[in-house]
Design goal:
Helices cover 27% and strands 26% of the residues. The chain is an alpha/beta fold.
Length: 148
């Protein structure tokens, strides 16, 4: 193959040497083009353009992503909607008009159902002001049966 590429006139050793050299140059060019493409991609990903500094990201207008919790009610203040949950580590979360409140049985719960020592679970998210807001809350446990 090497003699077909470089010809018979150079000799076998010189032809093999030139083939190895051409292969190494091709690999080097391929690596350099890949590096150049990576640098161009990194430059466009950072948002920088010629002569301009990249803009700082603006704060997101939406609140944080909800995450689950399960705990026990420590105390509840119906005037402010402040719910303290936990046994050893007490967390302060807030119920709002957007909070979905349900019993584990499926029917709608009210603030009167939030009694100290009752098991609760649901999802909370951090608001922009840093407070924790309850997105949904399930009061009681599934093993509890309705009265009657």
């Amino acid at each position: 193959m090497t003699s077909a590429v470089f010809g018979y006139c150079l000799g076998r050793e010189v032809s093999a040497l030139l083939f190895r050299l051409a292969t190494r140059v091709a690999v080097l060019l391929l690596l350099l083009s890949g590096l150049g493409a990576w640098l161009a991609l990194a430059d466009t990903a950072s948002g920088a353009t010629d002569g301009e500094t990249p803009a700082s990201p603006s704060p997101s207008p939406t609140p944080g992503r909800p995450y689950p919790f399960h705990s026990v009610i420590f105390s509840f203040d119906p005037e402010t909607g402040a719910l303290r949950i936990g046994k050893n580590r007490i967390r302060l979360v807030y119920l709002t008009s957007r909070t979905r409140m349900l019993h584990e049985r499926g029917d709608t719960a009210t603030w009167d159902d939030l009694i100290e020592g009752t098991a609760v679970r649901g999802s909370i998210r951090k608001r922009e002001d840093g407070e924790l807001e309850v997105v949904s809350i399930f009061v009681g446990t599934k093993s509890q049966t309705p009265d009657g």
